Amino acid sequence: VTVASGAPIAISKVRTNVGNAYDSLTGIFTAPVSGLYQFHMAFMVYPDPPAYVHGAIYLDGHIVAETISDSRHSYYDNVGIHPVVHVQAGQRVYAGNAESHTANFYGGFFFVIFWNS
Question: Are 29 and 64 in contact (CB under 8 A)?
Answer without folding.
Answer: no
